[in-house]
Amino acid sequence: MELKTKIAAEEGKQELTITRVFDLSVELLFRAYAEPEIVEQWMGTKVVKLDNKKHGGYIFETTDPKGNKHVFSGAIHDFTPGKSIIRTFEMENTTFDAQLEFLEFEELTNETSQLTIKIVYKSLAMRDQMLQLPFAQGINMAHNTLQEVVSKLK
Amino acid sequence: MNLRRDVFQAIADPTRRAILVLVASQSMTAGAIAANFDTARPTVSKHLQILTECELLQQEQNGREIYYHLNPYKMKEIADFIEPFRQMWDDRFNKLETIMKAYKPKK
Fold first, then answer.
1. CATH number of the domain that residue B11 is part of
2. How many domains does one find in chain B?
3. Is the ipTM of this complex over 0.85?
């Protein structure tokens, strides 16, 4: 099946655009970003702090299979319910620099919506590095989460 | 790793990307490719040289003419680069969608 998520990484630009159409109303889609309990479920992370407002911020904490904690955090620059979130994202204690993220939530129909995330990196090299390195990890983490969920079913 | 970076540098240029799109459907000579651009012929030749060096294009001698065609294996390498990232987000978003479809708003 074709992936519903599209990634546009234009060469020569230190940015990236992720787009995805959901079979969800824009209200439900936005809620998945706004409510900490829901963020925890789909991001597979612990939400330590989620202060969704202008001048707010967030801290997520993920524990890898070896028991190491990884902290992801950022400042929330702007928060417009049902419409947009502007925030930074940083993987703490890594050599990766913070990135700026523009999330836009659009209503397509009553029951479909589109999310567009534009990410701006410090440099082109940083973008390509981010694309390559942590995402192999990310996939592993996703698979581990899957494994946990499945093992609980037994 | 270095080779890979070269590929990405090669597609960093909009003219070079346009060339790849052109030859995707059929093999073309340098002249035929250049005819599609306002840029000077030597500039197009330079682009072709870069694309050939990093193996995105392959040359084929046909009589007196050299035809350029796309190297699908190299093109796939570019797609593969982004694919894990895309897969990760797609997995996450699928999960989001499943969770929210089952979601009952708090009264």
1. 1.10.10.10
2. 1
3. no
Q: Are β-strands A99-109 and A84-91 bridged in parallel, bridged antiparallel, or unpaired?
A: antiparallel
Question: Which residues of chain A have a Cβ shorter than 8 Å from any chain B Cβ?
Answer: 3-7, 9, 11-12, 18, 20, 22-24, 28-29, 31-32, 38, 41-44, 115, 128, 131-132, 135-136, 138-139, 142
Residues of B in contact with A11 (CB under 8 A): 8-9, 11-13, 17
User: Which domains does chain A possess?
Assistant: 15-153 (3.30.530.20)
| Residue B67 · residue B58 · CB < 8 Å | no
B89/A32 touch (CB, cutoff 8 Å), yes or no: no
Q: Report residues of chain A scoring pLDDT below 70.
A: 1, 132-154
**Cβ atoms within 10 Å, residue A120:** 14
Q: Do B94 and A31 touch (CB under 8 A)?
A: no
The answer to whether residue B40 sits within a structural domain is yes
> Residue B7: which domain range?
2-81
Residue B95 lies in a domain: no
Alpha-carbon gap: B8 to the closest alpha carbon of chain A (Å): 7
Amino acid at B51: L
Inform me whether the C-beta atom of residue B73 falls under 8 Å from chain A C-beta atoms: no
Residue B101 domain-assigned (yes or no): no
The residue among A9, A50, A14, A23 whose CA lies nearest residue A115 is A23
pLDDT in tens, A8-38: 888 778 999 999 999 999 999 999 999 999 9
Pairwise CA distance, residues B40 & B45, whole Å: 9
